[in-house]
Amino acid sequence: MDILLIAGLWLDASAWDDVVPELTALGHRPVPLTLPGQGDGATSATLDDQLEAVLAAVDAAHGMPMVVGHSAASTLAWLAADARPEKVAKVAMIGGFPAADGQAYADHFAVEDGVMPFPGWDPFEGPDAADLDQQSRERFASDAIPVPAAVARGVVRLTDERRFAVPVVVICPEFTPAQAKEWIATGESADLARVDRLAYVDIDSGHWPMATRPRELAGVLAEAADS
Length: 227
Prior knowledge:
single chain, two-stranded antiparallel sheet, globular, hydrolase, Alpha/beta hydrolase, AB_hydrolase_fold, hydrolase activity
């Protein structure tokens, strides 16, 4: 199966470098995506531009792909299911829930000079970054790509209720499946509460398992694609 890999904020396709060979060895075709404004040098990209890039990859896939979104990009993966419910086999969300219709894509941190730069590690101290050593933190911060404001502040639009028939697996890194279930049950994601086939998988990592647990993450993704 083609597995489309969408990294979260401040990351480009290279975030998946250690996951790609593992998925290939497990018999899948990983397709890491570089999004407009996050790795292609553009600073004026919009959320719609990023979604168009994801949909182009869905349309070019061999058969029906699984679309994987990490963190904030869980919303992009869900937008792809909304726009192509007949073409997306499954959605996997790593460490994130999709933003609701009418919400901003990622209105989490300050925008400066038209971009949302990486805010440093203070907001992520605790379970998020517990498994990142100092060298990994420094490399992440150095390589972080500021997110265009029109992406971060872009408004999410969901229009096709057929998306609820697309199976979803929530991969739980810095939180547990039990916590994710409770959050969804208490209103954290009205959309996920309506998904017909919703599964949860635990992975023992911080918020960036592609960096700290690439082999384990590839195994989880391959199992989700195979099921």
